[in-house]
Amino acid sequence: MNVLRLEETVFQSMLGSWAHQQMSRGLSPDTIDGRDGAIRRFTDFTERYPWQWQASDVDEYSSHLRVLGRQRSTIRQLHGTLSLFCDYLISSEYDWVELCEGHFGDVPSQVCLPWNTTKHVADYEGKPSNRSMTYDEIERFFQVADSRVEVTARSGKKGALAALRDAQMFKTAYAFGLRRAELRGLDDHDLHYNSRVPKWGRFAALHVRFAKASRGGPSRRRTVLLVPHMEWWVEGMEQWMDEGRGLFGASVPALWPTERDTRVSLPYMDRRFAALRQEAGLDPALKLHCLRHSYVTHLIEHGYLDRFVQEQVGHLVASSTAIYTSVSGDFKNQILSDALRRFSTLEESG
């Protein structure tokens, strides 16, 4: 057999067998596909097969990614994937070492070492520009979103219904602190009642079915309760469900359907948010995800317990909620004033 063809055959077998091992562990297809792609890209860059890899290959590829502007977290994820793949290949439970030595006179090894891989040294590694929006920014953004509906309807141009959908969609992201995929994946039957707040009807809670997965597993689910400070959301949602959504004539159960009888796409959501942000004259660094940051921050400012907020947004650990929180200067000043007032009272009584 041609040596090059044999090398490629063995490489493909390695990836296929590793995929089966991951499926056996219950990892999601998206996670497995993502890891497969990462290994293939690394292999293409090095122009070497796994039994030929060296630690220096990791150094060079990591440097290449840094030059391309890849985030630290992205590079760390790659290192984790490479490390897992190498661990799989050199495991005594499998015969890849013996097979490679017999066919190629070389064996795979662990090339991700403590001194050439990226460590998780900070709780938050996102962009500093990812922040919560102020109350004024939130108000301006939604004023523009609502005005788009009115202006488009008065002009007689097509698009008023889509503008209504988009306005309510973004209000939902803020009112429940949702991620993009969670927002996009909502269906009409994800609207729920809460017996403690019967006046809100079926708009008292949202069942989130497409939450962020953990450790490569399936999407987690959670129910997010509407809080009193977001009660203003109910009126708009009632209008959308009773008067707007049905006009699309959609057969899909999506809460945010399109004229093509599909779900709105993530790129579309990003584009519409950016357009409204620009029209409102807001900071261009603000992204759709900032509405989620704002939800966390504003609930904390309103006095909701950290644990409650953590459960609402679906964070597994409290530290994740903490890094989303950026309370305003007014809130901090109020806390300081309250503390000084208590301190002065204690001094006077002493």
Structural features, described:
This protein has helices at 3-24, 29-46, 55-67, 72-90, 96-104, 135-155, 160-176, 180-184, 232-244, 266-279, 290-301, 306-313, 318-324, 329-349; strands spanning 191-192, 205-208, 222-225. The chain starts with a helix and ends with a helix. The model is unreliable at 120-125 (pLDDT under 50). It has a 3-stranded antiparallel beta sheet with strand order 1-2-3. It contains 14 helices and 3 strands. It folds into 2 domains: 3-104, Orthogonal Bundle (DNA polymerase, domain 1); 135-336, Intergrase catalytic core (hpI Integrase, Chain A). 57% of the residues lie in helices and 3% in strands. The chain is mainly α.
Question: Secondary-structure map with pairings?
Answer:
Elements: H1 3-24, H2 29-46, H3 55-67, H4 72-90, H5 96-104, H6 135-155, H7 160-176, H8 180-184, E1 191-192, E2 205-208, E3 222-225, H9 232-244, H10 266-279, H11 290-301, H12 306-313, H13 318-324, H14 329-349
Quick recap:
The protein has helices at residues 3-24, 29-46, 55-67, 72-90, 96-104, 135-155, 160-176, 180-184, 232-244, 266-279, 290-301, 306-313, 318-324, 329-349, and strands at 191-192, 205-208, 222-225. It has 350 residues and is an all-alpha fold. It has 14 helices and three strands.
Global shape: elongated
- Which stretches are low in confidence, meaning pLDDT under 50 for 5 or more residues running? 120-125
> Whole-number radius of gyration?
26 Å
Major sheet details? 3 strands, antiparallel
Q: CATH superfamily assignment of the largest domain? A: Intergrase catalytic core
Oligomer: single chain
Structural class: mainly alpha
Mean pLDDT: 85
Q: Which architecture name of the largest domain does CATH use?
A: Orthogonal Bundle
Give the number of DSSP strands.
Answer: 3
Quote the CATH topology of the largest domain.
hpI Integrase, Chain A
Name of the top-level CATH class of the largest domain: Mainly Alpha
How much of the sequence is in beta strands?
under 5%
Give the % helix: 55-70%
Number of domains: 2
Distance between the termini: 93 Å
SSE series: HHHHHHHHEEEHHHHHH
